[in-house]
Structures are given as structure tokens and as C-alpha cells.
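User: I've been trying to design a sequence by hand for this structure and keep getting stuck. Would you show me what you'd pick, starting by listing the structure so we're on the same page?

Assistant: Good idea, let's start from the same input. This is the structure you sent:
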């Protein structure tokens, strides 16, 4: 009897264990799993990668917003010299000029003839999109402009040692014509040449209509480039003779007669009274006095810009004189090395 009861108990325990296990497996057979190293009949589902790891198909990738935007330009490659990042504007025949009111003074940009160097005082040309004269910008609507051009002998040729250097005045003509073509039709213009006296294209300021603009450009283009030609021989409608010498003072006096608001002066820096009774070099004091008195007589005092067109080594006294002129005239000074056309050996250097 005892053996029978033990046997029944063992069978009951086995029935409960194996029967319950079978029932449990049937109830969760839809859940795949791997147990004790044995793979279940149902394959395990693959787990999708996280969203941030999903590669973006090429056709779905957003386009580069700057790739076709013409308003955005790629930054230039950096170079070793900080000066190479400065924007320079090319002007005819190899001369280089710059436009930036916020640029620090530059020296010796490039090499050889045709180099523009900033004034030692650090004065720089006005920035702007308007017309310019050797890098000095002028408002297109500038009301009354006078171009004052040095035509003394040294602007065309100069002796250096045993050689004669001939300079290209055509560069100056092209700059002047470019300025005139860029000015607004509402502007008024006159052109004055000077050496031992001064001559003006017209006897008054003229509006820059198409007809006068063409005539002014033609007159400048036809300037005789022979050093022996004097002011008396040059064509013009108004003359003021106070020579001999290189009479910058006479040129300024004639320019101020036209009541300009802008004077663009181009000179190699010489300013003197020649001849046996001449008093030699002009001083800063007398030049400043002349400009001050002339500007005080105007309702709208003229701004005076200067281009120093070097046909020889810059002389400190001449550079100082030109700096005094722009300080008094409230303008800017640019220094440009003259372009040499040719060099001729002199038979008799003395």
C-alpha cells in the first residue's frame, strides 16, 4: 500500500510538471526565442537600426544651398603675405591702383614701373563704385570737377645720369578720359593744363552732355606730348600766363576761377619759378595760403586730390608740399611711378 501511494505521488508530480510546461509553451509559441544554445523554429526578427544611423539616399540628400548661389563667392586661398588680400584695380598700361578708405598705408606693392604706393602720411583714396582717377574715386554726380594736369618738360622726359628717360603721357590721358566717361551727365567739367602758365579747355565750366563729353575726351587725347611745346602754343579758351618755371600756383589760380567743388591735380611734384628773376622753389606756406584764400572765397570750398606722378626719385620737399596741399584741400594723395616708354643714351651727358 505504501509503495502504491508513493508511485501515484511520483506520477502526479511528473504529470503536473510536464503537462504545465507543455501548456505554457503552447500559449507563447508566437514569441521566438533561443534557449540553451538551441535556435527556435521561428527565425528571430531583425532589429531596425536607429534613425540617426540611417544613411540618407543620394536623391533625398538636400542640395548645397551655396552651390548655385551667385551672391556667395568662395573665400580666396590664404597666402603668405597679408598685402595679397588687398583688392587692387588695374588701370591702363600696367599701372596698379587701389580703392579703400579703410586700408592701412601700403608701400612698394609690386615692383618696377607702374607701382602705386600709398602716401607716407597714410592718406588713402576714397572707396566707392564711382569713376576714379588713378584710384582716387569721385562721386558720379560730383557737381563741378576740374582736372588740373602738369604738362611741364619733366612730365615727358628727364635726364638721369647719362640717359634720357621718355615717359608715357598716354597713361594719364586714358585715366582722364575714363574719369570723364564715368561722370554723370549732371556734372560740370573743365580741364586745365599748366607749366610756365596755364590754359583751360573752356572759359567756363561745361555740362557733361554727350556732345561736350566727347569734345573734352578728344581735347585730352590730342594733348601734344612734345616737351618743347609751351602753354602759349597749346590750344584752349582761357589762359593765365605767370611763367616761366613749373607754375603750380598759376594752375591752381586758373582752376579756382571756375569755382570747382573737386580739383584733381596730377603732377610730378615740381613747383618753381624759373628764369633769371625767379625765386626758385615754391614753399608750403605760400601754397597753403593760396589754397586757403581761394577756398574761403567759395560758397562750397573745393576738395583737392593729388596724384604724384613720379618721373624721378621722390624728393622729400616735393612730397611734403603735396601733402600740405591735400591737408589744406581736404583730399587724398596717391603716388604713382611713371611708365617709361624708352631710355636713350645721351651723346653728351653734361
Amino acid at each position: 500500500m505504501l509503495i502504491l501511494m508513493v508511485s501515484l505521488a511520483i506520477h502526479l508530480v511528473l504529470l503536473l510538471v510536464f503537462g504545465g510546461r507543455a501548456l505554457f509553451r503552447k500559449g507563447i509559441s508566437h514569441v521566438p526565442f533561443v534557449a540553451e544554445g538551441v535556435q527556435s523554429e521561428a527565425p528571430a526578427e531583425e532589429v531596425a537600426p536607429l534613425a540617426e544611423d540611417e544613411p540618407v539616399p543620394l536623391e533625398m540628400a538636400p542640395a548645397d544651398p551655396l552651390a548655385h548661389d551667385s551672391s556667395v563667392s568662395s573665400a580666396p586661398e590664404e597666402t603668405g603675405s597679408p598685402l595679397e588680400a588687398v583688392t587692387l584695380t588695374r588701370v591702363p598700361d600696367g599701372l596698379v591702383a587701389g580703392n579703400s578708405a579703410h586700408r592701412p598705408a601700403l608701400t612698394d606693392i609690386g615692383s618696377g614701373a607702374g607701382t602705386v604706393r600709398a602716401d607716407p602720411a597714410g592718406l588713402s583714396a576714397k572707396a566707392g563704385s564711382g569713376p576714379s582717377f588713378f584710384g582716387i574715386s569721385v562721386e558720379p554726380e560730383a557737381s563741378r570737377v576740374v582736372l588740373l594736369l602738369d604738362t611741364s618738360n619733366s612730365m615727358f622726359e628727364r635726364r638721369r645720369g647719362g640717359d634720357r628717360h621718355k615717359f608715357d603721357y598716354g597713361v594719364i590721358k586714358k585715366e582722364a578720359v575714363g574719369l570723364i566717361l564715368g561722370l554723370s551727365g549732371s556734372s560740370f567739367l573743365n580741364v586745365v593744363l599748366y607749366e610756365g602758365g596755364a590754359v583751360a579747355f573752356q572759359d567756363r565750366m561745361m555740362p557733361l552732355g554727350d556732345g561736350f563729353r566727347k569734345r573734352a575726351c578728344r581735347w585730352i587725347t590730342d594733348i601734344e606730348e612734345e616737351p618743347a611745346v609751351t602753354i602759349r602754343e597749346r590750344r584752349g579758351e582761357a589762359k593765365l600766363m605767370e611763367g616761366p618755371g613749373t607754375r603750380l600756383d598759376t594752375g591752381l589760380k586758373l582752376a579756382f576761377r571756375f569755382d570747382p567743388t573737386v580739383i584733381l591735380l596730377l603732377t610730378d611734384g615740381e613747383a618753381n619759378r624759373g628764369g633769371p628773376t625767379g625765386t626758385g622753389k615754391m614753399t608750403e606756406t605760400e601754397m597753403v595760403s593760396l589754397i586757403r584764400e581761394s577756398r574761403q572765397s567759395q560758397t562750397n570750398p573745393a576738395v583737392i586730390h593729388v596724384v604724384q606722378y613720379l618721373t624721378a626719385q621722390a624728393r622729400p620737399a616735393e612730397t611734403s608740399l603735396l601733402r600740405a596741399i591735400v591737408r589744406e584741400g581736404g583730399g587724398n594723395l596717391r603716388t604713382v611711378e611713371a611708365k617709361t616708354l624708352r631710355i636713350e643714351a645721351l651723346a653728351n651727358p653734361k
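That's my pick for every position. To get oriented when you compare it with your attempt: The first helix runs from residue 2 to 27. Residues 23-128 have pLDDT under 50 and may be disordered.
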